[in-house]
Amino acid sequence: MRRGHALEARPADVSSRFIGAGIVSDTRLTLRVDFGPGRSIGPGKIRLLEAIKRTGSISQAGRTLGMSYRRAWLLIDDMNQCFRHAVVSARPGGSQGGGAVLTEFGAELARDYRAIETAAEGAAKKRLRRLETALRKSSGAKSSAKSAPKKTSIRRRKP
Questions:
Q1: Bridge partner list, 28
Q2: Alpha helices, DSSP H only, in 10-103?
Q3: Do residues 47 and 9 touch, judged by C-beta distance below 8 A?
Q4: Whole-prediction pTM value?
Q5: Which residues, at least 6 apart from 91, have a Cβ–Cβ distance to it below 8 Å?
Q6: Tens of pLDDT along 95-153?
Q7: pLDDT given for residue 46 in this prediction
Q8: Angle of helix 69-82 relative to helix 43-55, nearest 10 degrees?
Q9: Host domain of residue 79
Q10: Which end of the chain is more exposed for a tag (fewer CB within 10 A), N or C?
Q11: What is the CATH number of the domain that holds 77?
């Protein structure tokens, strides 16, 4: 069965999972765009932008992704410093509560990244599947005790 593509910025899944005689693989194409030293955009930053769009909050987006507010803010600041236009507009908290929204550029950045990711997945799918067929069977698969290799140890002799 083919995994669906959610807008939750997971790396592009280019494989199928088969139970039984077929290949069971978790092969994914993960895309990161490097703009030079210390300037890049990848799946983590895009997931953060998408979470901010959904939640309207930097802290809530960070919690959703299992990161601290500080980490989320540093990633946003990094993107805001990298590009000529800000990707997120934030209002400080307080009695009225804060909030954050993607700027028009931030929304375009996330859409463009996803489009590039989809195009790359399509271009690489056939070759990645060919690589999958060359993989050894995963040692993480469940096996009976009879078929498990015997553990051996190598001991150093004392001089």
A1: 13
A2: 43-55, 58-64, 69-82
A3: yes
A4: 0.69
A5: 98, 99, 100
A6: 567 799 999 999 999 999 999 999 999 999 999 989 988 888 876 655 444 555 555 55
A7: 97
A8: 110
A9: 34-120
A10: C
A11: 1.10.10.10
Handedness of CA 52, 55, 58, 60 (dihedral sign): negative
Q: Which residue has the higher pLDDT, 3 or 80?
A: 80
Question: What confidence tens digit (pLDDT) does each residue in 9-18 have?
Answer: 444 454 444 4
According to the model, what pLDDT value does residue 136 have?
85
- Give bridge partners of residue 41 from the DSSP assignment: 33
pLDDT band for 155, please (50, 70, 90 cuts): low
Number of Cα atoms under 13 Å in the Cβ half of residue 65: 28
Domain for residue 126, yes or no? no
Domain total of the chain: 1
Is 83 inside a domain boundary?
Answer: yes
Query: Can you give the pLDDT at residue 111?
Result: 97
Ramachandran assignment for 143, one of left (phi > 0), alpha (psi -120 to 50 degrees), beta (any other): beta
Q: What is the pLDDT of residue 85?
A: 97
